[in-house]
């Protein structure tokens, strides 16, 4: 699959406004600032496909990118802003769990987490939801360039141990947009999901 062909299709205010639930889509989620936009840009080799460094707390949209016919990448709003009102958080959780449960075309979820502090509470919740919906998860440990090789390997091994507790299809890989490593691993996992 050629990720470079990704093009922006639409921004949806909520899941009910997403394109028709046909074909195959893979969603990207993570705490804000986890490096999700950078990862999407790295994967697609497009510097400005997903916008980086958004203003925290702003109303966020679901961005939809299309690869080939009926293959989509879904950029979900970042979560974890301290200042977001509880009601907004609850609405977000509600719509996200609905999305995971009801979206037939959703064949995989990439959860992006800073390698220095992975599996925060909301990350874990999200992964549990996905596993309970039998959606495979790629736990992507971002900004891996921030750690030296030994520490990085250690974190990956620890995260793989931790991932066993989810009792589902959860793959853990390290990734760096800055140094462009881990891209092949991401492509391999996504290719499997698209081609299954
Ligand atoms: P998003 O909010 O999850 O979309 O995160 P962004 O992609 O906007 O990245 C948040 C911040 O992390 C920005 O300052 C990026 O420059 C930085 N960042 C993203 N990816 C990497 C990476 O691979 N390595 C390093 N060192 N910094 C990164």
How would you summarize what this structure contains?
The protein is of the alpha/beta class. It has helices spanning 36-44, 86-102, 121-132, 149-164, 183-195, and strands at 7-12, 24-30, 62-66, 71-75, 106-114, 137-142, 170-174. The site of guanosine-5'-diphosphate has 18 residues, from α1.
Distance between the amino and carboxyl termini: 13 Å
Helix content: 25-40%
CATH superfamily assignment?
P-loop containing nucleotide triphosphate hydrolases
Kindly provide the name of the CATH class.
Answer: Alpha Beta
Estimated share of beta-strand residues: 15-25%
The number of helical segments is: 5
The run of helices and strands is EEHEEHEHEHEH
What is the count of structural domains?
1
Summarize the main sheet: 7 strands, mixed
Secondary structure: number of strands: 7
Q: Using only CA atoms, what is the Rg?
A: 15 Å
The distinct bound ligands, ions and cofactors come out as: guanosine-5'-diphosphate
């Amino acid at each position: 699959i050629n990720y470079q062909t990704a093009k922006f299709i639409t921004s949806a205010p909520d899941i009910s406004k997403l394109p028709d639930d046909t074909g195959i889509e893979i969603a990207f989620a993570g705490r804000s600032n986890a490096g999700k936009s950078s990862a999407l840009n790295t994967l697609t080799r497009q510097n400005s496909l997903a916008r980086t460094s958004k203003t925290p707390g702003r109303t966020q949209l679901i961005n939809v990118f299309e690869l080939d016919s009926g293959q989509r990448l879904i950029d979900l709003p970042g979560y974890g802003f301290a200042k977001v009102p509880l009601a907004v958080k609850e609405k977000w959780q509600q719509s996200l769990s609905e999305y995971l449960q009801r979206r037939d075309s959703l064949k995989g979820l990439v959860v992006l987490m800073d390698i220095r502090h992975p599996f925060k509470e909301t990350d874990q919740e999200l992964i549990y939801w996905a596993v309970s919906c039998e959606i495979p998860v790629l736990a992507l440990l971002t900004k891996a360039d921030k750690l030296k090789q030994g520490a990085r390997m250690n974190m990956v091994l620890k995260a793989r141990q931790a991932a066993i507790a989810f009792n589902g299809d959860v793959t853990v890989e390290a990734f760096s947009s800055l140094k462009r490593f881990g891209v092949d691993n991401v492509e391999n996992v996504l290719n499997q999901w698209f081609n299954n």
